[in-house]
Structures are given as C-alpha cells and as structure tokens.
Amino acid sequence: MEFPVAGSPHLSGQNDVQRIMAQVMLALLPGIAALWWYFGWGVIVNLGLTSLTAVVCEWLVIRLRGRDLRPVITDLSGLLTAWLLAVALPPLLPWWQTVIGTAFAIVIAKQLFGGLGQNPFNPAMAGYALLLVSFPANMTQWLEPSVLSGHLVSLNEAWQAIFPGIPPHPQGWDAITSATPLDHLRTELSRDHMISEIRREPLWGDFGGKGWESVGTWYLIGGLFLLWRGVIGWRIPAGMLGSLFVTAGIFWLIDPEIHPSPLLHLFSGATLLGAFFIATDPVTASTTPRGRLIYGALIGVLVYVIRTWGGYPDAVAFSVLLMNMAAPTIDHYTQPRVFGAREGDDGL
Amino acid sequence: MTEVDYRKITLDGLWHNNQALVALLGLCPLMAVTNSTINGLTLGLATTAVLLLSNLSVSTIRHWVRAEIRLPVFVLLIASFVTATELVMNAWFHELYKILGIFVPLIVTNCTIIGRAEAFASRNPVPAAITDALAMGLGFTAVLTLLGALRELIGQGTLLSGAHLLFGEAARAWEFSAGNDFQGLLLAILPPGAFIGLGLLVALKNMIDKGVDMRAHRAEPSHCRTPPVISHS
C-alpha cells in the first residue's frame, strides 16, 4: 500500500481511538443481530449487563488511579471489550458470572496493567477464559438455536433466567439447552462415531451447526466491513483462517471420517469472531507486517490443536491468549529491515 | 556490632522486608500450597521452624566456618533440619504431611532460609539471629495463611477446612462454610489464582506503605524515611 505525502498544509486524520472502536462496534452489530435472531433476548440482556459493568468498573479504577475519567470512558474501548465478551458468553449465563467475567476483564486484565495500550492480554478473552475455567458447566451450556427448538427466548424469559435463575421451560434447563455443535462433535467422535454419521443429525447445516454458521457468516460480513474501512489489516485474519483451513485440511484429507472438514472448523465456534474481532486487537497482537501473519497463523494452528486434542471444545480464547504472550517475541524477530541497512547489519 | 535493634529486626521481618511480599522469595511453595488456609499455615509454620533452627545454628558456628565453604555447610545444616521437620510431620501430622507432599522436603530449596542464613545469621549474634528467624518466618507464615484463606474462600467458599488435621478433632467445628450451593471461582484454587492473589497482596502492602508515608510527610514535612534495607540473598 502506498501513502504518498503531499506538501503542507496537511489535513489531520479522522482516526482516533473512539472512531476506531465505534467502527468495530458497528461491524459487530450484524453478528449481534444474528445471535439475537437465533438465541433470543438473553444476548441483549448480557450485552447491557457487560456494558454497565464495564463502565462502572472503569469508573472505579480510574477514580482509584486519580486519572481523568472522560477520555477513558469516551474512547469506547471498555464498551467494546464488554460487547466482545457478551457475544462470547452463553445467552442465559447467570448474571453474577457475567459481572465477574467483565469486572476481571476490565479491572485485572486491562486497568491493572495500565489501561488501554498497556495490557498484554486481550481483556475480553481473559474474562472469558476466567469464566470458562471457573464455571465450566454454565459456560458450555448453550441454548439450542431457535431454528432447531422452534422457540425464541423472549425478553421476559431471558430476564427471569439470568437474574432469578428460573429456566424458561417448565421441564428445566435440559429441555432448552444443548451442547454446542463442536462439543457435540467431540463427544460423538470420542464414542467412535463416523463424521458422515454424525453430520446426518438435524443440528448440522451446510458448513457448521445450524444457526451457528449463519452467525459466523454475519461476523464475516462485519469483518469484511472492517477490512474495507481499513480498521484492521488483512494479515491476522488471513493468517489465522488460512492456517486453520490448511491444518484442518491436511487431517481431513488423511481421513475425512474422523477429522471434520476445514469448512466446519471455519464456520464453527468462535473462529470468525476471533479472526476479525479478537485476534486483530491492535494492543495485544503482533505489530510488524510479517509478525502479524505469523501471529495469525499460529493462532489458527493452536485453535486446531486445542479443539482436536485439548480439553475444551472451542479454543479461540486460549489460542489468542497464548499468542498474546508470544507477540512481543514475534515482534522482536520480525522487525522490518531499516531502510538502507543490510541483512545482519544492526542498522547504523 | 554491639547494639542490636530488635525492634527494627522484627519490623523488617514482619513488614518492611517481608520475604513473600517484598523479597518475593520462596514463591514456589507459596504458589503451590496456598489453596487452603490450613495448608498455608502448616507450611508457613514448618518453614519458620526450619528457619529458626538454621539461623540459630548458623549464628552459633559463624566464627568457625571458613568463608570458602560456608554455603555447603549452610545447605547441609538446612537439609538436616528439613529432614527432621519432615519426619516430625510424618509422625504427628500424617494426613497433612500427605496433603503437602513434596513441598515439605522442598523447604530446603526455599531461598528465604539460605538467604537469611547468609545475609543475617552468619553476621549477627545468636539472639539477633533468633529474632530475625522468628520475624521472617512469621511474616512469611502470615502471607501464606492470608493467601490461603483468600483462595479457599473465593474458590470453594470455606475457611479453615481441615483444621482438625492441624489442631486436633476439636477444631473440626472451626470450619466456616458458605453452604453446598456455593459456586466458587475455581480459578482462585488453580495456580493462576495464586499469582493474581499474591500480586493483589503486594499491591495492598504498597498501598498501605504509601498511605503511611504520606501521613508522615504531612505531619512532618522535612522528615524523610530511610528506604528499607533490602538484603541481597
């Protein structure tokens, strides 16, 4: 890409943190709408809950640190963290777990490290990992998408389920929740069932689980919008999706009956959300051009490895956190050559 | 060295040079066993006992040990005391001994003990060395117990569970429980909980120090507290 610089006077750019965050949130809207369409009002209640918690937590910490509150609240980064966490959480998670996850994301993962720009780990994913490790039962219990259950959770039902904990179905939680497609696939494979056999079940659509694949597609559309606006670069999503596709493809070609197709991997779980919205976080990702490709590619490989041989059905959060840890090292080894310096020179 | 400032030694050990919060020594057992109050307390007491014996003996023999071989001698002494402690625990606190497992013998590698032997006991008379061992040991125990209590409370909603293992059957009633419905934050019990918990405790200590400093400055603007002496161990 070229950036020709003309002589002065220059117009100042419009890109500030607030604008970037707002565009990411805008791009997230189609995905949120799709989640709402398939999983009901719980998503919206969670969104409100995480947003409120995030703002309150930021306000508290900023007060403690004696900083100016306005720029921190208005840069929207805390709200974006809240939104990303909300779309990753099961729609009817008990309210206090949602609050704990958000508070951890904002207070421990973001502000204790010094706030926006200083945090080594993606706050939303740190909050998600905390909840997944601490409350595995609640966190792996998802609603069935409405296309399967034929029932959309209403606002009142969602409220009752999230706050007092009353299940929206007279027969209890089990009647309306089910394992996610990836979780289901995992269980069935461990019982020696063939993929072709598993895929005949009604919960599967064209690529991934019914409902889930559409949500993924809407994330993809939001991601393409971000690419078009230049908010995110192509390297991290391309690296992540490409390497996940290739890794899954190799195993799939070896034996398609025990290894799900690469398309299933791309359209299941949080792959597309992760590739465009989470791995691309400018603070915690690698910053050099080559580094971003490597960073994305390693996330893709890790996602495959953890999904296939790890203890959890989905792996985007853990992969992103692990690679956050590796990002400074990747940056160190992929620094672009200083113009005029030769390979192996130290620049001057 | 003629005048020994016992007050300073005690305050250093318990607070200003707390081995867990300031020197950040002995983190391996600190992280590994503080998943409950009683585990933390027991390991803290065992460490204190070893520290006391090692400081006592190192200080006693300090004039006869040549500088070139002092470290092997210290290690030998510490290892013997750890073995003795281990045998005592195995005999009288067998259940606890089984729970703490490898971390009892690992007291020998706790940097606090060799650190105090080298930095303090080998240069100071016996009474000062004993005071130092008690203060350092109790400071370390306090942090272990506090961290254990926090992790136990957040992680499984109990306090002092297993107290009978240390204090006898009568202590069974001491246990506090938030009930069986309590859904603990499992992360607190897992290793990350130890790191985050210790980090928060260190922050709390620094916050208190800062508050005390500020109050001192306000009362007496010209006064400037000398920075705490940090031993190099």
The rounded Rg of chain B comes to: 19 Å
Largest sheet of chain A: 2 strands, antiparallel
- Integer count of domains of chain B: 1
Shape of chain B: globular
Note the quaternary state here.
heterodimer
Please state the average pLDDT score of chain A.
Answer: 88
Main sheet properties of chain B:
2 strands, antiparallel
- By helix and strand content of chain A, what is the structural category? mainly alpha
Percent helix of chain A: 55-70%
- Counting structural domains of chain A, the number is 2
Helix content of chain B: 55-70%
Short description:
The complex is a heterodimer of chains A (348) and B (233). By secondary structure, chain A is mainly α.
Could you walk me through the main structural features you see in this protein, from its secondary elements to its overall organization?
The complex is a heterodimer of chains A (348) and B (233). Chain A is mostly helical and 348 residues long. Helix content of chain A is 61%, strand content 1%. Chain A contains 17 helices and two strands. The two termini of chain A are 27 Å apart. The mean pLDDT of chain B is 85. Chain B is built from ten helices and two strands; from the N terminus they run αααααααβαβαα. Chain B is mainly α and 233 residues long. Chain B starts with 5 loop residues before the first helix and ends in a 14-residue tail after the last helix. Chains A and B meet through helix 6 of A and loops of B.
Task: Summarize the SSE layout with pairings.
The complex is a heterodimer of chains A (about 350) and B (about 230).
Chain A: H1 17-39, H2 42-65, H3 69-74, H4 77-88, H5 95-110, H6 123-134, H7 136-139, E1 142-143, H8 146-149, H9 155-162, E2 177-178, H10 181-190, H11 195-198, H12 212-229, H13 235-254, H14 262-266, H15 271-278, H16 289-309, H17 316-333
Antiparallel strand pairs in A: 1-2
Chain B: H1 6-16, H2 27-33, H3 37-60, H4 70-92, H5 94-100, H6 111-119, H7 126-156, E1 158-159, H8 163-167, E2 176-177, H9 186-189, H10 191-219
Helix pairs in contact in B: 1-7, 3-4, 3-6, 3-7, 4-5, 4-6, 7-10
